[in-house]
Q: What sequence folds into this?
């Protein structure tokens, strides 16, 4: 029954394409311009009047509301509307009231004290028109993990609507806030920035494995720029190669392969391929021009990359084995840093015009190009969110280089970092 | 575990609600993982601190070198230029910057005419000290993108390498690396700073 409700809201299309007998590939596609679902999320009901619990309820409410707003699936009703109707009583909800203020979905949150250890957070989702509950979740959370509990709840909501959840995803990036370039990670909204490496030289260009457990990156050590795999939660590090300057790693979305750039004797950057464990390295591009910045299609069968084989750096697509090379960027003299959207239909990239870098999104189906950023700045290194509705990138818009996020339709620009300089972001796949 | 977050099971009853199990485990693993990352960071930090600084082996012999310049006692023979050189540490030699850096045009990696004479001087020095091995670092200015700049830095290092080899320096003595735009010499955002930052510079790595 509820599945029909999801289709009615219609922001998701699932098409299953059978390519090989035992292999299914799922494409997500976003219907652009769908109106967001009007959601009422009145202040959470607090069962103890202690200021601690009250404060926890506010953090949970604020985090969840901003997650849902960020999703572009839901649209929060103006808070003033709540004063037009009877106050919320979770034991007896007057759905007609909520209908009159045009809420389609009502989120009722209740927070109580958990014997001083933390809080219990209970969230229930109601279909206002049908006048009944859709689902509920209950979390017991330590006070230091309130934001995480709210993100989990928001993820459940997206999952319920058939969307790709991403509120607990992580962004890895390079920052010089502590002196030299090291790797850090943070929540999607810029909270919980944590340092990951301590090499005191340069750690650069990180990329997540699709399971979110491993980061590939370049570390400058002595006379080498070594490509490493770092098991983030185990703290183990493995060398992939120390030959040449190896950089720009990208794991295939199926988790099987790792593409990266390195050089033969010629000092010319080429694209190489290894297993996701960094073994069995082989070269996949062979020409005298620079080939760099590989990014995978969501099917793991194609790679978009930058090459100056035509005289200027442009974006090309090829099969992962190196065949069927096609140029896809035109009308400029300097394009780089392609990022293939998880929806499969779009590639974001950087275009340099008169020393200004702006981000563009190329729709591979319609060949339409959207300019995402506008400003006298260097906007660089775009990377898509797991749901393909947002991008993170670096920009010197405010003077120093910082990380920003922006939506696929150029709305909702937000700055996420401020300490030191921060760049080369990579958004985990889940 | 103190900082864990658990989903209590089945305590909300609603029509059409289904609860997915197994979250608790996941979350426990997540928080355990956080602790592990933190532990890893700590251990890394400790490790780095423990690493002894590279011992300056010739430091003790320094006074002898200085003595040479003083009115030397007649019995001690004067050190030759080569002996003085061999007694210096790599850091000391690099501090003297025996090999001058060269600069490049915007977006380019060919060796400019003004760089050729610099490389000729550098190649004579390398031929004089023929046991020396050198690392050529290619750098770019901030007006290129990260990925393309790393490739460009490598090409700048390589064209410098090729020019030195054409002047008779053995290719076995030279290594190359690219830093892209990660190590600016001048943090400015103007033509002068950019011109300075587009460079190939040399580090002596063995002698």
A:
């Amino acid at each position: 029954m509820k599945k029909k409700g999801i289709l009615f809201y219609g922001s998701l299309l699932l098409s299953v394409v059978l390519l090989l007998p035992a292999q299914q590939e799922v494409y997500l596609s976003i219907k652009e311009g769908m109106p967001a679902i009007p959601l009422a999320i009145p202040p959470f009901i607090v069962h103890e009047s202690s200021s601690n619990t009250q404060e926890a309820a506010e953090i949970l409410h604020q985090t969840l509301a901003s997650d849902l707003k960020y999703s572009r699936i839901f649209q929060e009703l103006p808070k003033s509307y709540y004063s037009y109707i009877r106050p919320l009583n979770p034991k007896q909800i007057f759905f007609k009231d909520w209908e009159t203020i045009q809420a389609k979905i009502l989120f009722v949150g209740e927070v109580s004290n958990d014997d001083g250890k933390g809080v219990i957070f209970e969230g229930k989702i109601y279909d206002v028109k049908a006048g009944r509950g859709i689902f509920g979740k209950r979390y017991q959370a330590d006070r230091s993990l309130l934001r995480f509990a709210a993100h989990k709840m928001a993820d459940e909501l997206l999952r319920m609507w058939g969307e790709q959840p991403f509120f607990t995803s992580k962004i890895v990036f390079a920052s010089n806030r502590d002196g030299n370039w090291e790797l850090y990670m943070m929540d999607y909204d810029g909270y919980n920035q944590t340092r990951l490496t301590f090499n005191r030289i340069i750690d650069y260009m990180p990329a997540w494995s699709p399971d979110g457990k491993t980061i590939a990156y370049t570390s400058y050590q002595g006379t080498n720029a070594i490509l490493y795999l770092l098991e983030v939660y185990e703290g183990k590090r493995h060398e992939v190669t120390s030959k040449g300057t190896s950089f720009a790693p990208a794991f295939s979305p199926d988790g099987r392969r790792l593409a990266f750039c390195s050089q033969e004797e010629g000092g010319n950057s080429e694209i190489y391929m290894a297993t996701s464990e960094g073994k069995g390295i082989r070269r996949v591009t062979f020409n005298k021009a620079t080939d760099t910045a590989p990014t995978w299609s969501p099917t793991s069968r194609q790679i978009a990359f930058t090459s100056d084989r035509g005289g200027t750096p442009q974006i090309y697509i090829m099969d992962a084995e190196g065949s069927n090379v096609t140029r896809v960027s035109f009308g400029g003299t300097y394009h780089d840093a392609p990022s293939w959207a998880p929806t499969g239909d779009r590639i974001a990239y950087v275009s340099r015009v008169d020393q200004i870098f702006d981000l563009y999104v190329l729709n591979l189906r319609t060949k339409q190009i959207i300019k995402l950023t506008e400003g006298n700045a260097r906007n660089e290194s775009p990377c898509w969110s797991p749901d393909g509705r947002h991008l993170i990138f670096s920009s010197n818009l405010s003077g120093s280089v910082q990380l920003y996020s922006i939506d696929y339709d150029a709305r909702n620009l937000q700055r996420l970092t401020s300490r030191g300089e921060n760049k080369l972001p990579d958004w985990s796949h889940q | 575990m103190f900082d864990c977050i658990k989903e209590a099971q089945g305590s909300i009853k609603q029509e059409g609600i289904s609860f997915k199990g197994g979250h608790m485990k996941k979350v426990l693993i997540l928080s355990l993982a956080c602790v592990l990352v933190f532990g890893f960071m700590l251990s890394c930090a400790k490790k780095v601190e423990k690493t002894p600084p590279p011992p300056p082996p010739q430091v003790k012999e320094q006074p002898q070198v200085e003595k040479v310049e003083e009115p030397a006692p007649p019995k001690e023979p004067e050190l030759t230029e080569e002996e003085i050189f061999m007694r210096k540490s790599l850091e000391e030699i690099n501090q003297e910057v025996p090999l001058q850096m060269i600069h490049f045009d915007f977006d380019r990696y060919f060796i400019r005419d003004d760089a050729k004479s610099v490389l000729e001087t550098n190649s004579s020095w390398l031929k004089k000290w023929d046991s020396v091995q050198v690392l050529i670092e290619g750098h770019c200015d901030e007006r290129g993108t990260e990925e393309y700049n790393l490739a460009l830095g490598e090409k700048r290092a390589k064209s410098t390498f090729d020019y030195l080899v054409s002047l008779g320096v053995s290719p076995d003595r030279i290594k190359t690396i690219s830093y892209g735009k990660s190590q600016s010499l001048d943090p400015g955002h103007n033509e002068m700073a950019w011109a300075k930052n587009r460079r190939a510079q040399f580090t002596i790595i063995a002698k």
